[in-house]
From TrEMBL:
Subcellular location: Membrane
Major subcellular site: membrane
Native source species: Lactuca sativa (Garden lettuce)
Coiled coil: none
Segments forming domain Trichome birefringence-like N-terminal: 54-107
Signal sequence interval, chain numbering: none
Protein's name according to its UniProt entry: Trichome birefringence-like N-terminal domain-containing protein
Length: 407
């Protein structure tokens, strides 16, 4: 903008100014209609004065906004996954895409994909977790994708449990990668296959993490999520190998086994992490909306056919396990005391309100629904994951705020 001002001051010709105004208008409207944001690379390097003072990013309200939302379009995202592509699979309403998170005391800064890539230049970012972590990662890729004009290079490469995303903009190579690593329980388990992990009897090697961790320990930024897979009522803890007939195994309560796995994770980080290099985030639990009775619907109903958020301030669903949240918070605080830089991003409350944001039946189903399920879709509705565009975009707006303005 300063360059344009200098040009205007240098040329006093009214004709010149009119021509420039027409050009700027054409660029603006063409860019808006195409759905692609052409960003000046220099903007990514500008100093910003965004302040966290007096700002509570995690408490606020959802505001309907069909002017600035959605931040991208489902069908235009090159990396959209069928698990989160709700309109592709028949969802007719689109209001869930138009809600903006308004924190108390401040506004979230505008997401800028090229500014983020500039901040991550020559760095490796890894999301580590389960399908909700992947939900979060895909959202970030879609946000960045909307800033990358064709035919710039962008690719996601699969390597077993690891998916690596790289992008360059207008022949500018950022040399940044944003990866996802499938690790639903953090420790080794019989659920580690990124495709074939739907097992009824979950078994975890509660003190083993090396095989996973060596895939992400060199990262400059790590973003962990681990919650949903711990809600199974019956899980077995294992000492020894899966194949060893003399192995020792026990069953334990939900909170206890979660604590043991997080301690294995934190101890490994304490021993192996390069404190001067790696920044870390731990994402708090993502709530589900499986019990419609929590917000006044008849018992037995859930997120199916929900089209509006819950507006009751401070709403808290009964299915959200606060004991697991406190356990994670305690472990994260212990890591901070050991000199490890880690932020707990508490996205739980803001996501609690969004009963309308789940795929329900509008997604790819690994097992096609039966005739009886089609007749009564409520029981097989997905009220855990999130449609995109949607709630995880806000998680990434908050993550972006920390990365760009606090690190």
């Amino acid at each position: 903008m300063e360059k344009l001002q200098r040009l205007f001051h240098g040329y006093r010709s009214i004709g010149f100014m009119l021509v420039m105004g027409v050009i700027m208008g054409v660029v603006y409207f063409c860019g808006d209609n195409s759905g692609i944001r052409f960003d000046v690379i220099g903007e990514a390097k500008m100093a910003d004065d965004y302040s966290f003072e007096g700002c509570d990013l995690f408490n606020g309200s959802w505001v309907y906004d069909n002017k600035s939302r959605p931040l991208y379009r489902e069908k235009e995202c090159s990396f959209m996954a069928d698990d989160y592509a709700c309109q592709k699979f028949g969802r007719k309403d689109s209001e869930y895409q138009f809600w903006r998170w308004q924190p108390h005391g401040c506004d979230l800064p505008r997401f800028n994909g090229t500014a983020l890539l500039e901040k991550l230049r020559d760095k490796r970012v890894v999301f580590v977790g389960d399908s909700l972590g992947k939900n979060h990662w895909i959202s970030l890729l879609c946000l960045i994708d909307s800033w990358i004009p064709e035919p710039s290079h962008k690719v996601a490469e699969w390597h077993g449990s690891l998916i690596t995303f790289r992008a360059s903009v207008r022949d500018l190579e950022f040399n940044a990668s944003i990866d996802f690593y499938w690790e639903p329980l953090l420790v080794e388990s019989n659920c580690d296959d990124p495709v074939h992990h739907r097992v009824h009897d979950r078994i975890m090697k509660i003190e083993s993490i090396e095989r996973h961790a060596k895939q992400w320990i060199d990262a400059d930024m790590l973003i962990f999520d681990s919650y949903t897979w711990w809600l199974e009522p019956n899980m077995t803890l294992l000492w020894g190998s899966f194949e060893n007939p003399n192995r020792t195994s026990i069953e334990s309560g939900r909170v206890r086994r979660y604590e043991m796995a997080l301690k294995t994770w934190s101890n490994w980080l304490d021993t192996h992490l390069k404190r001067t290099k790696t920044k870390m985030f731990f994402i708090s639990l993502s709530p589900d909306h499986k019990e419609g009775g929590d917000w006044g619907k008849p018992m037995g109903e859930n997120c199916f056919n929900e089209t509006e958020p819950i507006m009751e301030q401070g709403y808290w669903g009964k299915g959200t396990d606060t004991d697991l949240m406190r356990t994670a918070q305690s472990i994260v605080q212990d890591l901070e005391k050991k000199g490890i830089e880690i932020e707990l991003l508490n996205i739980t409350q803001l996501s609690q309100y969004r009963k309308d944001g789940h795929p329900s039946i509008y997604k790819r189903h690994w097992v096609p629904p039966t005739e009886s399920e089609l007749a009564n879709p409520i029981p097989y509705s997905d009220c855990t994951h999130w449609c995109l565009p949607g709630v995880p975009d806000v998680w990434n707006e908050i993550l972006y705020t920390y990365i760009r303005y606090k690190l």
